[in-house]
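EI: anyone free to look at a 731-residue chain?
SC: sure, send it
EI:
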Amino acid sequence: MIKLSKMHKRLLALSAVLPIGSAMAQTEAAATQPQLETVTVTAQRRAENIKDVPVSVTLLKDEKLDVLLSGGQDIRFLAGKVPSLNVESSNGRTFPRFYIRGYGNTDFSTFASQPVSLIYDDVVQENGILKGFPVFDVAGVEVLRGPQGTLFGRNTPAGVVKFDSAKPNLDKVEGYYSASLATHKTSSVEAAANIPLSSEWAMRVSTLRQHRDDFVDNTYTKQNDSLEGYNEHAERVQFLYKPSTTFNALFNVHSRTTDGSARLFRANIIKKGTNDLVDDYDFTKINTNGLNMQNLRTNGANVRLTWDLGSVKLFSITGYEGVDNYYSRGDIDGGTPTGPGFIPFQVQTGGGLSGLKQYTQEFRVESKNPGPLNWQTGVYYFKESGDGYSDNFDSTTQLQTSHLASHQNNEAYAAFGSVSYDVSSDFTVRGGLRYTHDQKDFRTVSAVNVVQVGATSVDESKNKANWDLSGTYKLNQDVSAYARVATGFRAPSIAAASSSVPITVADAETITSYEAGIKADLFNRRARASLSVFDFEVKNQQLTVVGGNSNVTKLINAAKTKGRGLEGEIEGFITPDFKASLSGSYNFTKIEDPNLYVAKCAQCTITDPIGTNGLVSINGNPLPQAAKWIFNATARYNWPLANGNLFVLTDWSYRSKVNFFLYEAKEFTGKALTEGGLRAGYNWDGGKYEVAGFVRNITDKQQVIGAIDFNNLTGFVNEPRQFGVQFRGGF
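SC: here you go
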């Protein structure tokens, strides 16, 4: 036996402690590095880590949302801010149109449907007017790409944009307030308060107020500062009732009121043979002899009941959405008989929606099995009815010259189910099925000075089953891969008649989509990345033909549309005080129908083949508003101080060129658009208070982003540069 001296014993003890101490030091060093929060989404109607969800999905929340909305922006702020998403509108702050992976619908008619579904607090917002509800006091915005027909249903073949309001809680009184002031006296005031009322009841009140002064001069009427202003306010009140751990009820009442200018159409703003603005373009001036106005009032309520029965949870979601009144009027030719430029004839129209009522009911049961098998199933009911109308006016007298009113009833019901099974601790398969019946009844109820061609009423119905199948494999605790195949369905659409076009119907469209991707947490969760690839085919795609040589709208179907692409996102901490993100997408779309021709515009330069009948072939064209490339980049740097933090944040978005319409024309090809923002400020008291200055469209990019495709080269433009300041506080 070897006898150790005291010195030897000390050296041995020290050598044993050193590796442990070194490991402890490394652990402590790692612990001081910031980590990204776990992202939880409800893309599969359950709360799950985004890494485990077999869907290409992006979540926007907290500071990212606050930065993008600080200058009083409406829901179009989402355009190009996440991969494969575009949002545009020819109606200004109302009636937004969404596109995911290039797949959307340019239809602006009263009862137009879209293949992208917008869902607010688990209630679908079907009509385009409802989709423009302001974004305030929300917990997050999820963008789900690809068909979501099994669990969400209701016209989701392209995807879903999902908003979740911040919910009341029983814990404590808390809330926030925010106020900003920007260029053209643009103001935005937002506030929310959570108030526990008892041990079982809590209330959350949220409000938004937005205003912008008129600042565009009408050179025809000699009225200065007469256009481009708006007033917007919206409210939401929620009550939570939670008498036990097994039952809770959430009540939600909300409303919106907005008025101000409609979209300003500008005659001959595009230089002939190009997509450049004319040399004398000035955003602050317009020459128009038409009246311009817009007003909207909506309201809604929903009730969400939840029972936890041990092995299962039962949900009941009852929703109501209504449009009390919507009216928009504008000068469609964009000018006067004297110009600017050559304007063959004057066109001034107004249109609206009244008495729209939407009722939805869903019952859903969700399992809570500790084992490998879990499922959810439910039934769904949808009913909508409303009256839409369009008017024409004499631009000299401003008197109404014609009136056409229509009524539509839409009723649908569905049954659905989804199953997931853990084949092993690393591999999970999921499958879902949904059966839908959809019925629409459409009729003309009034036609003044409109000679309607064809039938005055149309009934359409369709039954369809959709399904999806996916698998998720965990390569390790930080990396997972998935593959998914899914189908989707959009019910038939009906468009109102006009003097030369009868009521038109687009048959139901279907999609089959294939997708695969990988998601990873990197560098001890200091970074996160995802990459997805996809391929889809749409059969019988519904398309909207607008304009030509006359102001008409009609629906058609394309035999086939194909699309493919990829999406990638990465974000993380470069240093403990420097955080950055980068995302992008590539979307290729192509219409495949050699027999499909549409009317062309009156004065533009067509680049597609023109048939002997004078119509334009759109075979081989990309879908309208489908940008091939979208990129986003953000960077935030923080300087810690003794009592707070200085910070600077910049965000940039890019989308490549787009076609405004089904045909391709030099003037009606929107240029690539790059826009950036900058925000710098100081926060203190643990981030409770913040003051910041900001600028949007920092480079003052000015270009045409949409057009009217008849009469003349009428277009509309993006928002000008905006400077502002904001203060935000919490309690």
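EI: Residues 246 and 266 are 59 Å apart (CA to CA).
SC: 👍
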